[in-house]
Design brief:
Oligomer: heterotrimer
CATH topology of one domain in chain A: Rossmann fold
Strand content of chain A: 15-25%
Chains: A alpha/beta (339), B alpha/beta (338), C mainly alpha (351)
CATH architecture of the largest domain in chain B: 3-Layer(aba) Sandwich
CATH superfamily of the largest domain in chain B: P-loop containing nucleotide triphosphate hydrolases
Distance between the termini of chain A: 28 Å
CATH topology of the largest domain in chain B: Rossmann fold
Radius of gyration of chain B: 22 Å
CATH superfamily of one domain in chain A: P-loop containing nucleotide triphosphate hydrolases
Helix content of chain A: 25-40%
Order of helices and strands of chain B: EEEHEEHEHHHEHEHEEHHHEEH
Number of strands of chain A: 12
Largest interface: A-B, 45 and 46 residues
Number of helices of chain A: 12
Number of helices of chain B: 11
CATH class of the largest domain in chain B: Alpha Beta
Structural class of chain B: alpha/beta
Number of domains of chain B: 2
Strand content of chain B: 15-25%
Largest sheet of chain B: 8 strands, mixed
Structural class of chain A: alpha/beta
Radius of gyration of chain A: 21 Å
Chain lengths: 339, 338, 351
């Protein structure tokens, strides 16, 4: 039933910087099934955007090093495709929506033209048909007066409307995968609600698989089927939406959930933050990257990287608490009860 | 000394208009009034462009108000006061900013940044005394004196924000305007900053105006919350009341728009999604300014601007739905139409 | 290099770790206290903006070479004229038009032979070697070239300094006070830019007597505009930054805002602009001299020498080659250095 369309295996990506090499992604594994939404959650610098850009091969060549791993899409390794083959994949089969709708549109080009561009290039439609299709797309994403708006320039749209246009552009060629990199972070809450609703509706209509990159667990709960939690370039926990929210196994996931504000809780209930700051990727040691901020640290965590433990078919976690040798008294209630 | 429960800040019909070219004016703040009691936190919530940051900046005298009054500590603030009084008021009111990256001067060390207020307001302190004070402040916000000779770019977002807080505290203010201090931070760090602000409030008896763009974090710090839309306050009430029983349709929509980090609740709840965008503050709709997006819009809304009034004890709202005189007339019209 | 070896070390460690998973013994599974102080620690050494900028500048090969070449050129320009007995104005008509000769460097073309291949020194029994040859009046070109370099550099530096002072003050006032002052000051700049600066300069020199002072004045009269615009743009951008607002809410005086907050942050672009102004000024001086509006004989600048050499390019090409080489080197070096500085000082490059 579930048909896998994208698999990322053991991906390692590093960047050359002025001060040395920084490894941004250290061994990321995940699969994406047809028509599902996979949310990648993490703080800034956790490598979630880098993962997305690596799939699209959008990282600058001169300072990026993909030292290991492969990205399989329909039996082909995207990392080995020639540039022209990759360009065929981009847009027509895998499309991307970026965070900032202001900068992802060309300010000197009419909206209609921008949507048509992909259609003309990938689907070899005639101009007339492409224009008709562009119009349909604008209507689909809920832009009023779509016909007149085709001739408008991006600055004539508000932020929310622009993000709708960007989504229309991304979905014009009916891609099988849509990568949305923080698509609503730059928008106001009421507009965010509109865009999320739109993405859900469109996914249902077009059966697109979505990789949703976000830092907001609320958005995740609203959109995702499965969730991957990233920390310091590694997926520390991965599972279905319910597993991640109701049976979190990694202390980081647990911490994230605890630090989220809860609308129904009374205001006297304190927030429980994760102490400290995210680690500096350039100076990571050999142990678990979360060890310095983890309330359940053990001696082993500082020196040895935990392995991925498969709890069941869908739920994977990377933490020493899963090891049989961990004393039961040390395991947090939430983790223990799920075991 | 002031007693508790006394108003520290009173804002009366404050307006701030910006001239945009020859003909149009941007009405960033269009007549708002509120008070903040000593030791209280007022949350000010609204979407981008509603004028909430302008409120903060007008109160702290960065902008000069177009009309209206800001009364702080029983004294009307305006720029034509004598220098000494102005300096003293400036000292008592500090600001914490949104962007932890642009709010610290990249060419100064943490020591220089935090001690700036001391240099300006307490020139009598010796260098040693200043440094001692800065180290104390660093510890207060959870950093250590080891950090004092470093430059801002070496810190993470949360740490920078704490440096910004230490800078504001250096001059021992009574009142702090926090202009979206957590909006640019990661979730796990947001909670750190909110907790720190609460702790400091208790220790130093601070009064806060806490500006935010959504309702999710604000309630953990605010005693009362004001919701702003296009330059006006549409609702103001105690924080718990606002979450339990929001009156204005905009407040309800804002609450409903927040995605809840709980899959079951997300699946089961009915979300009211507002249509359309916020109109431009240069061209404000007639009557009620929210009517273009309001799910409960009535005929009267385009004609008469609703009055900001106390609909329930300590619960202020500006909406025709809670105005008996208007509502009875509307009902009459509705009946007539039948 | 250091970092790569560190990386390797880490890799080895990791490899060792995976091989020695059995090293993980049960006794390691004990709660370790959370190091709360360590959480806030920053492992990187503390570096100020300027330290980092210099570090970056010196990593840039192009600008290091350019800097090195410039230092040498400037030293030679200072000591060069006194390295032999000739002065820049002493004429010796008997020794006119001597080709360059340096003993030991004959293989490089410094062999004292003219374009027909005849050794002029032997034919005219000249004992002293003229390293860069002589001009039609028998003046030593070596001395004249370096004297000319001195004068050209002096003109450029003075012009750039004046540009800097006027531009920073003008741009600073215009942007800091803003409003009507800014509008009026910007209109004045627009008028100045509207008139082609070459015309202004030429007219200026025609009114004044040609000479070092009038060349500098003519260049500065329009040259400061670029600097003023850079400073204005930067300050306008900085003024909206929150750290400036923060300082305002702390009650900082204008002087404090300008000297502590604005100026240190505009220094980078100012330095880069100055570095680009210098070669432009050198070029303008050469150009003015070339069209005959520059320095008057016997004073020499690189432009004057090039103009002289250009007249007799077919028979005495060395007269053109040396000053042209020097001026090209100076221009390239300043541009390379300015480029390197721009990269080193650009805050967008910082992470």
């Amino acid at each position: 039933m579930t048909e896998e369309i994208l698999a990322v295996n053991n991906l390692h990506v590093s960047f050359k910087t002025q001060t040395g090499t920084v490894t941004a992604i250290r061994g990321v594994n995940f699969k994406l099934n047809k028509g599902e939404t996979l949310a990648i959650v993490g703080e800034s610098g956790s490598g979630k955007s880098v993962t997305a850009k690596t799939i699209m091969r959008l990282l600058p060549k001169h300072n990026t090093l993909i030292s290991e791993g492969d990205i399989t899409y329909e039996g082909r390794d995207l990392l080995n495709l020639s540039l022209s083959d990759m360009q065929k994949v981009r847009g027509s089969e895998i499309a991307m929506v970026f965070q900032d709708p202001m900068t992802s549109l060309n300010p000197t080009m009419r909206i209609g033209k921008q949507i048509m561009e992909g259609l003309l290039k990938h689907q070899h439609l005639s101009k007339k048909v492409a224009k008709q299709k562009a119009l349909e797309m604008l209507e689909l994403v809920g832009i009023p007066n779509a016909k007149e708006r085709l001739e408008a320039y991006p600055h004539q749209f508000s932020g929310g409307m622009r993000q709708r246009v960007v989504i229309a552009m991304a979905l014009a060629c009916n891609p099988r995968i849509l990568i949305a990199d923080e698509p609503t972070t730059a928008l106001d809450v009421t507009i965010q609600a509109q865009i999320l609703q739109l993405m859900k509706d469109l996914q249902e209509k077009m059966d697109t698989a979505i990789i949703l990159i976000t830092h907001d667990l609320g958005v995740v709960a609203n959109m995702a089927d499965r969730v991957a939690v990233m920390y310091a370039g590694e997926i520390v926990e991965q599972g279905t939406l319910d597993e991640i929210f109701y049976q979190p196994q990694h202390p980081y996931t647990l911490g994230l959930l605890r630090s989220m504000p809860n609308l129904s809780a009374s205001r006297s209930e304190p927030l429980i933050p994760i102490p400290g700051s995210p680690p500096d990727l350039a100076t990571l040691g050999t142990g678990c990257p979360f060890a310095a901020r983890c309330p359940y640290t053990m001696k082993v965590c500082h020196d040895f990287l935990p392995e991925h433990t498969h709890l069941n078919e869908s739920h994977t976690v990377m933490c020493w608490l899963q090891d049989a040798r961990t004393p039961l008294t040390h395991i947090p209630e939430e983790v223990g009860s799920a075991k | 000394m002031m007693k508790k429960n006394e108003d520290l800040l009173v804002v009366k019909d404050l307006k701030k208009h910006f001239k945009m070219g020859k003909t149009s004016t941007l009405k960033a703040i269009d007549g708002i009034s509120f008070t903040i009691k000593k030791g209280e936190t007022l949350g000010l919530v609204g979407e981008s462009g509603c004028g909430k940051s302008t409120v903060g900046r007008t109160i702290t005298q960065i902008y000069e108000p177009t009309s209206g009054e800001v009364i702080f500590d029983n004294e009307v603030l305006h720029t034509k006061q004598n220098k000494a009084v102005q300096q003293q008021k400036k000292r008592a009111m500090q600001m914490i900013f949104q962007d932890p990256y642009s709010s610290l001067n990249p060419r100064m060390t943490v020591m220089e940044i935090i001690s700036e207020g001391l240099v300006i307001h307490s020139p009598e302190l010796s260098r040693m005394e200043r440094e001692e004070k800065v180290n104390e402040l660093l510890e207060l916000v959870g950093l250590s004196k080891k950090h004092s000779q470093r430059y801002p770019h070496e810190f993470s977002g949360g740490q920078r924000q704490r440096i910004g807080i230490a800078r504001a505290l250096a001059v021992e203010p009574q009142f702090i305007v926090a202009d979206e201090p957590i909006a640019a931070l990661d979730v796990s760090i947001q909670a750190q900053i909110v907790n720190l602000l609460k702790k400091l409030q208790e220790e130093k008896e601070l009064t806060y105006l806490f500006i935010a763009h959504d309702l999710s974090m604000v309630k953990y710090i605010s005693d009362r919350i004001a919701v702003m839309y296009l330059g006006k306050i549409v609702e103001l009430t105690a924080s718990d009341t606002l979450y339990e029983k929001p009156l204005h349709p905009y407040s309800r929509a804002l609450l409903s728009a927040i995605p809840i980090p709980d899959p079951d609740m997300e699946r089961s709840r009915e979300q009211t999604i507002l249509q359309g965008d916020v109109p431009s503050p240069i061209d404000i709709p007639s009557g009620c300014r929210f009517r273009t997006r309001c799910p409960n819009v009535m005929d009267v809304c385009s004609k008469i601007e609703p009055v900001y009034r106390e609909a329930e004890p300590n619960h202020f709202v500006a909406c025709h739905l809670y105005d008996e005189t208007v509502m009875s007339r509307e009902d009459a019209v509705a009946l007539h139409d039948c | 290099m250091k970092t790569t070896s560190k990386e390797q070390h880490l890799d080895e460690l990791k490899a060792a770790q995976t091989n020695n998973r059995d090293q993980i013994t049960a006794d390691l599974f004990v709660p370790a206290p959370l190091d709360t102080a360590g959480q806030e620690e920053i492992s990187k050494p503390s570096v100020s903006f300027w330290q980092e900028a210099f570090h970056r500048l010196f990593k840039n090969k192009g600008s290091v070479i350019a800097l090195f070449a410039l230092v040498i050129l400037i030293i030679v320009a200072i000591v060069g004229p006194s390295m032999n007995d000739h002065t820049y104005r002493s004429q010796n008509l008997a020794h006119s038009n001597m080709p360059p000769k340096v003993s030991g460097l004959e293989w490089l073309g410094f062999d004292g032979k003219n374009s027909k291949g005849m050794d002029v020194y032997e034919a005219q029994h000249v004992e002293t070697n003229y390293w860069f040859g002589t001009d039609e009046f028998g003046r030593d070109l070596w001395t004249r070239v370096w004297k000319g370099t001195q004068i050209s550099l002096f003109i450029a530096l003075v012009a750039a300094t004046l540009d800097l002072i006027i531009g920073v003050i003008y741009g600073g006032i215009s942007s800091f006070y803003g409003g009507r002052i800014d509008t009026i000051m910007q209109r004045i700049i627009e008028v100045l830019i509207g008139i082609p600066n070459l015309i202004v300069i030429i007219l200026f020199i025609l009114i004044l007597e040609p000479g070092i002072r009038s060349i500098i004045l003519a260049m500065v009269i329009t040259g400061w505009v670029g600097m003023a615009r850079v400073v204005r743009g930067q300050i306008l951008q900085l003024k909206g930054q929150e750290f400036v607002l923060a300082s305002q809410t702390l009650g900082a005086s204008n002087a404090r805002l300008i000297w502590k907050h604005l100026m240190p942050n505009v220094m980078g672009p100012i330095i880069v602009t100055v570095m680009f102004t210098i070669p432009t000024a050198i070029f303008f001086e050469a150009f003015l001299s070339f069209i005959g509006l520059g320095l008057q004989a016997p004073l020499a600048s690189l432009g004057v020498l090039i103009e002289d050499g250009y007249k007799s390019i077919r028979f005495f090409s060395y007269k053109l080659i040396f000053p042209a080489l020097v001026i090209s080197t100076i221009m390239i070096c300043f541009n390379l250095l300015a480029d390197g500085l721009r990269d080193a000082l650009d805050p967008k490059m910082r992470k």
